[in-house]
Amino acid sequence: MNEQKGKPESSLGEIYTLTKDNNRMLRAMRRDAFVGGILKFVFWIAVFFVLPYVVYVVYLQPYLENLQSAYQSFNQNAEAIGDAAKNVETLKNQFPNVNDFLKQFGG
What we know:
0% strand
């Protein structure tokens, strides 16, 4: 009747203790898999969201602020040059005979 020759039949108590031990190990494995999944999720959130933000704040933001201030000063200078050109145009319109006047003096 016993398929395994030479081994005594397992008693019901041994089967019970092996089943309890197996159940304990399976629960521990399931718990470890759950905790590992949560830790992986937190790790990838940190990699995709926190790390780029830190890199931006620490390394890129100062350069971008300098670039923005340089762009703003360039725009202000361009506006000043445009205003100066408009002022020259208005002076030219106010004194239409300036060329004739300057030709009298050899200019």
